[in-house]
Design a protein that fits this description.
It is a single chain. This protein is an alpha+beta fold and 180 residues long. Helices cover 54% and strands 17% of the residues. It has one domain. Strands 1-2-3-4 form a four-stranded antiparallel β-sheet. Strand 2 and strand 3 form a beta hairpin.
Length: 180
């Protein structure tokens, strides 16, 4: 009978070690993936490409790239990087989006930045939908954000990297919609 508790302890301990190691590896690969979200190039038709999406409007493509940088800064729980990325969006043609970007760029608390980011995401959706020429943008959703109210964000890939919880719940969420 004494062997059963010892075996259970060993199994539980082993599972904990494996789980800890797996989470560490996932965190590192997620950071690498989000850093690659913001690659920009131009093709022969002067359409700007951000990851897998092409935009007719170069300004919107630039704003989307800044949005992705902001999202990635929030995923990394880096308030200073979020401030810098948000500053790139303060010249947005939509005054409401520019105002929210300004709020984020002036805010020092990461949780407050995340709250304003959720509002900014709501406003940027129709801009992205109307400017995409080809490719895909992924609208993702975390049902646990903001005390269970939930919040969305946009990403260049289907992989979930949650800007509302960062490394606390990095992969919490789902792809809610694909914009093409």
């Amino acid at each position: 009978m004494k062997r059963i508790p010892r075996n259970l302890f060993f199994i539980a301990f082993s599972a904990g070690i494996i789980s800890f190691t797996s989470c560490k590896e996932n965190k590192e690969s997620a950071t690498d993936a989000t850093q690659e979200d913001v690659k920009m190039t131009q093709d022969d038709n002067a359409k700007t490409i951000v990851q897998n999406a092409k935009f007719n409007d170069e300004k919107v493509a630039s704003e989307y790239a800044a949005y992705l940088q902001l999202k990635d800064a929030l995923v990394a729980t880096d308030a200073n990087a979020a401030k810098k990325a948000a500053k790139k969006m303060t010249g947005f043609e939509n005054a409401e989006i520019a105002e929210l970007a300004t709020k984020i760029s002036e805010e020092t608390a990461i949780e407050a930045q995340r709250k304003v980011f959720s509002e900014l995401t709501v406003l940027i959706e129709p801009v992205l939908e109307n400017a995409i020429a080809s490719g895909e943008i992924y609208k993702q959703f975390c049902p646990m954000a903001f005390d269970g109210k939930g919040a969305s964000w946009f990403a260049a890939s289907e992989e979930i990297n949650n800007p509302y919880f960062g490394d606390k719940m990095l992969h919490c969420g789902r792809v809610e919609k694909t914009i093409q």
